[in-house]
Write the C-alpha cells for this entry.
Amino acid sequence: MKLYIVGPENNGDGVYGLVSEKGEGLASHLCSHLGFARSDLESRRPERQKEWKERFGDYKVLVLGEDEMTRERIIALNKEFHKDDKHNNED
C-alpha cells in the first residue's frame, strides 16, 4: 500500500495530509515545510506506524509526485472514497 503526503503546491506553510492510494485520509498536520511533514505525519508516530502496519501490511510513504499519482487523481480518489455512506461521519 502506498500512502501519499499531500500538501501545499509550494511545499511551504500549510496543512499536509497523509492519504492512502485508495483515497482514505489518514492524518493531517500543520507544518512549516514539506521537510517536516513525513516526521510529523508518520515517522515519529509509532502508534500510527503500528496501526497502519496492522491495517495495510507493508506500506510505503511517498510525497505526491514521487511516482505516477497526481494531485487531481488523489483528490478524485478521496471524493470517491467518501461517496460511500460507511465512510462519512455525518449524522
About this structure: Residues 12 and 33 are 4 Å apart (CA to CA). The chain has one domain: 2-87. The helical segments are 34-43, 46-56, 71-83.
